[in-house]
Specification:
By secondary structure, the protein is of the alpha/beta class. It contains 13 helices and 18 strands. The strands form 5 sheets. The protein has an 8-stranded parallel barrel, surrounded by 4 helices. The protein has a 4-stranded antiparallel β-sheet with strand order 5-4-1-18. Bound molecules: magnesium ion (MG). Its cofactor is Mg(2+).
Length: 373
């Protein structure tokens, strides 16, 4: 099997909740997805997606994703898409960094690999555990009681994990408002629920310590991504009575190894696109597993194609280490594909169909913005 052609599509994904509000005053209304179709010499197609969360979340933005794919795609023509590690190495030799662009191409290769064998991607990644994976909500910042209501809405829809966003400027109330948000969102906690308090690197070690002093005892949550630097994160780690998991600070193998070496965290958010696709994510899954780190399997954001990659990868994480997966497609209003994971009360499992199990809606994608053959 050889890669015969590659097409790139870009579509706008409006946020399903209007305006998404993140720490340090960042707001988002629409995300731009870069979607890749790789066609093999036998006519089989594989699909992948990369959707950065605006331009101020991690070091990625949609125009950059497109520009990097324009550099990478010609190098991949003629390669065997089933040799995912060789493809990953070739992309690293062609362009340093720019994992967001590599991710879309890598995911499309895995989709092709699965279709070529008749197996779901989860089987090729090591095999599904068959334990349903809880879904996690993404509760952006707002008034504490309004955030509590959004947690309740997700609870009613079967979500067992809740990611509560914090990180308020002092001029807007600072740690006192963040403390109110945490208390409000945890107030109606049900058995089996799991709470993240995610600052998206929006705290300093000073604001984090003030927040801890304002919280009542006995709150059961995990603190995620408190600060933007290692120095601050390690200071928070020392001062925190709460378990800590990394997100924005740990996106590549080296970050993860560094975190383990420093005992900087109890877990990390395994995000497919910042990692560079399913190939590096698989490696990070195994490094984290060896260190006994808990994982949430997520992505920055994305449509159904991103969600499919998350579901297949998440299904291969041992259940004692997997806390939840993010349904990215629930965060946007545009449907790019039919994707039907097996749903139950405890969560989701990947579909049994070959590859990622997607039926792409090509009309929604429109014409390619670039093509290579
Ligand atoms: Mg996070």
């Amino acid at each position: 099997m050889k890669i015969a052609s590659i097409d790139l599509f870009q579509v706008a994904l409006p946020y399903s909740g209007g305006t998404y509000r993140l720490s340090r005053g960042r707001t988002y209304e629409t995300f731009t997805a870069s979607i890749v179709r790789i066609t093999a010499d036998d006519g089989t197609t594989g699909w992948g997606e990369s959707t950065p969360f605006g331009s101020t979340y991690v070091a990625a933005h949609p125009a950059g994703t497109r520009a990097a794919i324009e550099m990478l795609a010609p190098a991949l023509l003629g390669m065997d898409p089933r040799q995912v590690d060789r493809i990953s190495s070739l992309m690293d030799e062609t362009l340093l960094g720019h994992n967001d662009a590599k991710a879309a191409l890598d995911i499309a290769c895995w989709d092709l690999f699965g279709k070529s064998t008749g197996l779901p991607v989860s089987e090729l990644l090591g095999g599904r555990t068959n334990v349903p994976m809880p879904l996690i909500s993404s509760i952006h910042t707002g008034d504490p009681e309004e955030m509590r209501a959004r947690v309740a809405d997700h609870r009613a829809r079967g979500y067992l994990g809740h990611s509560i966003k914090i990180g308020t400027h002092d001029r807007d109330g600072g740690p006192a408002v963040d403390a109110e948000r945490i208390v409000a969102c945890l107030a109606d906690r049900r058995p089996g629920e799991w709470f993240l308090v995610d600052a998206n690197a929006g705290l300093t070690s000073e604001t984090a310590r003030r927040l801890f002093s304002l919280l009542p005892d006995g709150l059961d949550f995990v603190l995620e991504s408190p600060c933007p630097t290692w120095r601050e994160t390690l200071a928070v780690r020392k001062a925190s009575p709460y378990p800590l998991i990394l997100d924005e600070l740990a996106t590549n193998d080296d970050d993860l190894i560094h975190a383990i070496e420093l005992d900087a965290a109890d877990g990390f958010g395994l995000k497919v696109t910042p990692a560079g696709g399913l190939t590096p994510s698989r490696r990070q899954r195994d490094i984290a597993r060896a260190a006994g780190l808990i994982m949430t399997v997520q992505d920055t954001v994305g449509s159904d194609i991103s969600y499919a990659a998350i579901v297949h990868l998440g299904a291969t994480v041992p259940p004692e280490l997997l806390r939840c997966v993010l349904k990215t497609s629930d965060m946007v209003t545009l449907t790019t594909a039919a994707f039907e994971p097996i749903e139950s009360e405890g969560g989701v499992l990947p579909p049994e169909s070959p590859g990622l199990g997607l039926e792409i809606d090509e009309e929604v994608l429109g014409a390619p913005v670039a093509s290579w053959s």
